[in-house]
Amino acid sequence: MDDEPEMLEAWSFALEYSGFIVERASDGRDAIASLQRQTPDLVITDLMMPGMNGEELCRAIRSNPDWADLPVILHSSARVTTASAPGLWDAVIRKPAQLEVLLHTIETLRRR
Fold it and tell me: Which class does domain 5-110 fall in?
């Protein structure tokens, strides 16, 4: 999920090309609606978005028993770490990230 359409499109295309099924959301509320329809294997979100931001989205995910263990990657230009908000996200990738870094992080989290 990302509020930058170009970033959302680029990552979606790259992940689909790598064999993943991708559900896109442009903000936190859109992501919650998508999660209610079908729980994914993993969530990738930006931090700074209009409406419901990435931290609020992660809090909503963690507070729902059906989603609490869902791996979350924070992909953001903000200076945050996994220690910035313990338990909200499982990994942080700084923008702009390389595809290889994102794919490695996804595989690492999927193996847990």
Answer: alpha beta
